[in-house]
Amino acid sequence: MTDLLAEVERLRGDRTPFVLATVVRVERPTSAKAGDRAILLADGTLAGFVGGSCAESTVRLEGMRLLATGESTLLRITPAEPARPPARPPPGGEVSWVV
After folding, report:
1. Which single residue of 15, 40, 44, 54 has CA 20 to 30 Å from 62?
2. What's the predicted TM-score (pTM) here?
3. Which domain holds residue 30?
């Protein structure tokens, strides 16, 4: 985590555009933990950890949009609604980030 925050300071000093995503809430099961962070650069590079592949792709997609607009947001993903009739419970938990 210290290395990631040092990278944030370096990027700020270099005036390099980036997005910092921070996990603020989780509901198990999920691999992310509150406090996990990642930096997204304009070329799509993601350094750090914000969750599994679904979470990472969501953060990357929304982060690129936010990087272009200069906005910030509270981002949340939840398991998909179960099919009717439900064949099995929806996989995964719920994750929220400040991006």
Report:
1. 15
2. 0.81
3. 2-79+89-98
